């Protein structure tokens, strides 16, 4: 059982979050595969049971590179039903688009027929941070990874 | 295993959809419990493993009654993590808010920590119809119910 | 020229924001009319050239009372085209639904055919705060009020 | 006074919509400038008083090319406050993401501080069509163009 984590990052903030997400997936007993969006092909998705997307917030939405990655995944459309998904985003400020970015990432995953889970304790739609992720943001990332990992295990039983 | 379907309806359109959702839940081998929002209490939610919300589209969002129901569910906040959720909406026209209503319903479910699944074949975020639901809309409702029912079964194994 | 500010508030946080929005409207040279949602009727909307909605964040969306107010405004549907709108929200934590609440408020205003303006400097979609509004949140509220007030003046010339 | 219409299109459906939007802008007495996203630079935006974005629906959101165009516009961030914006989208089916695409386009415009107007009569958030645009979708496009054109004129008085 493997979860693919695809992220974009220019300042390194989203990358730090990605590593915390990776830790969470591991903690759930599932293998994380971490890839920068520049170094991943959509052909790698089918070998995984989960897909977590992470992006900096650009104009309230995921970066064009993350969008391009998902646009290209159309060649597998219909093959990812029931796969587990998750989202995280790194913003430059509070209330500057982290939530709308995560909602957008989730929308792409839902169009693929994926399963996503919210959180009742903060960062409800996915993990978010402002600037360099603080302890609380990193904890939200770990919990996201763990949540996705556990769902993968529960759904594959 | 039971799934609670809570809907609001004034013209009867959302109610027709609710019955199709009910059929889908049954088809998955799970017991559906169908309730108009006027006849349900939040105290009934904890006896179920799934919650599906249906609403007419009023100003691009769920009706205030559906919102009130969820606002009142705050007394159980944190107790519904991992419950399975789903959403459907009935609009007066095409592109008049069915999608934004379903996204809003899903957001409420995610804040409760619930699990939702998209669909790769049409009505991606939940089931939608325009006016009295046609065959294709009713089929989307049945598939939604079945999807939620199957997830409930898979996650409870 | 008058702008109606309708807000819901239980802890007083959204109310504090409402007063800062009021100050901003005044600064633009337009008369603000501030009303708690419990003390306003939809019949008051037509006497104004702007409508600003404020809400606490409940389950990622506006409170059911704000939703009920707008649902009832359907009796004037089509009469508010070109009116100026704006939104603000008070959340319990960061990334717990302030943005999705503001987006939802904006959606209701757009369905009424209203004009809204974003901000390029923080709190892009409307004014948001976490807990009791700090100076930066209050400044965002003042700017929101001023922005709406200025638009009202510019569009009525 | 000029309005820039930037669209992406592979099947030609969004392009047909773009031409109808163009007609609407003209009808308002403002000059439309129509550009495929492959043939436009962000350096052209500042010469216009309005910006209308059109996109096919890919995974519930604008195409990556439209996203890239806006991501690149960051070099002018803060310069477009008060510019008039508008959005349209072409989907492959009903309730398959046209609304979420338009909401996303609007979010990008709002982050730039732009002014957008909804419509109280159908296609509330922007103009949408399913497949090749029918008469009603083309009319929504013309009205969108006219609405943006009129706002440009009213705000520049």
SSE layout:
The structure is a homotetramer of 157-residue chains.
Chain A: E1 2-7, H1 13-27, E2 31-36, E3 50-56, H2 64-72, E4 84-91, H3 98-111, E5 115-117, E6 127-130, H4 135-156
Helix pairs in contact in A: 1-4
Task: Provide structural commentary.
- Four copies of one chain form a homotetramer.
- The first copy, chain A, is α/β, with parallel strands linked by helices and 157 residues long.
- Chain A has four helices and six strands; from the N terminus they run βαββαβαββα.
- A five-stranded parallel beta sheet of chain A has the order 2-1-3-4-6, with helices on both faces.
- In chain A, β3, α2 and β4 form a beta-alpha-beta unit.
- The longest helix of chain A has 22 residues.
- Chain A is globular and about 40 Å long.
- Chain A starts with a strand and ends with a helix.
- Chains in contact: A-B, A-C, A-D, B-C, B-D, C-D.
- At the A-B interface, α3, β5 and α4 of A face α3, β5 and α4 of B.
The largest sheet of chain A, given as strand count, sense and whether it forms a barrel, is: 5 strands, parallel
What is the string of helix and strand elements of chain A?
EHEEHEHEEH
Catalogue the unreliable spans of chain A: none
Strand order, main sheet of chain A: write it out: 2-1-3-4-6
**First-last Cα distance of chain A:** 11 Å
Q: Whole-number average pLDDT of chain A?
A: 97
């Amino acid at each position: 059982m493997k979860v693919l984590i695809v992220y974009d990052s220019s300042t390194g903030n989203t990358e730090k979050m990605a590593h915390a997400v990776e830790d969470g997936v591991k903690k759930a007993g599932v293998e994380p595969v971490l890839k920068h969006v520049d170094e991943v092909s959509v052909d790698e998705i089918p070998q995984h049971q989960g897909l977590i997307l992470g992006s900096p917030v650009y104009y309230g939405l995921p970066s064009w590179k993350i969008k391009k990655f998902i646009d290209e995944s159309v060649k597998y459309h219909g093959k990812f039903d029931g796969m587990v998904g998750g989202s995280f985003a790194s913003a430059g400020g509070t209330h500057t688009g982290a939530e709308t970015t995560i909602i957008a990432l989730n929308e792409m995953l839902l169009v693929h027929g994926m399963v996503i889970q919210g959180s009742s304790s903060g960062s409800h739609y996915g993990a978010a941070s402002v600037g360099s992720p603080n302890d609380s943001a990193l904890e939200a990332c770990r919990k996201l990874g763990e949540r996705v990992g556990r769902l993968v295990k529960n759904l594959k039983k």
